[in-house]
Amino acid sequence: MPALAYVSLGSNIGDSLSNLQQAIRLLDETAGVKVKSVSSVYETDPVGYEDQQVFLNIAAGVETNLSPDELLVRCLEIEQTLGRERVIRWGPRAIDLDVLLYDDEQLETERLTIPHPRMHERSFVLVPLLELNPSLIHPVLHQPFSELLTDTSGVRLFKETERQKPEVFLSL
Which domains does the chain have, with CATH numbers? Predict the structure, then answer.
């Protein structure tokens, strides 16, 4: 039976909306992965390294037969395909894909930690994620993500859309 995973996507270099759209398409075209839901697009202020342009962020819910590590590898391949360069930590990027959740699993390896270790601190991750599933509970903290989201300043709806089916997002 496929697992339900959530992926966060962000971009602030080039045509960010197109970068997100291409990343979703590549993820959906991956054998063993089916994009089931895509959040609205949010414009978000940079966090960490703040001397850069605003980001566009979304979250996607995917059903997958890939293992968590295989899903991570595919996300990294998509980043590379779309021109991601890792120069400055938390710096500008054409595309960023992070595996946030994988069913209710808890995993920590050298390459991957699930749930994503800082997701509960980042409104640019939680706002789109909660749009997809408002009842999600953090598998380690055992708290609803909705209670962990305490500050939404710096996160604005980019385009007036309701929750979208993946095929609607892919046709933007």
Answer: 3-170 (3.30.70.560)
Indicate the angle between helix axes 68-81 and 16-28, nearest 10 degrees.
Answer: 140
User: Structure pTM?
Assistant: 0.90
**pLDDT tens by residue, 11-60:** 998 999 999 999 999 999 999 999 999 999 999 988 766 666 888 999 99
d(CA 48, CA 3): 32
**CA–CA gap between residue 153 and residue 131 (Å, rounded):** 16
d(CA 24, CA 113): 22
Contact between 74 and 66 (Cβ < 8 Å): yes
Q: Catalytic positions, please?
A: 84, 93, 96, 98
Distance CA 99, CA 69 (A): 9
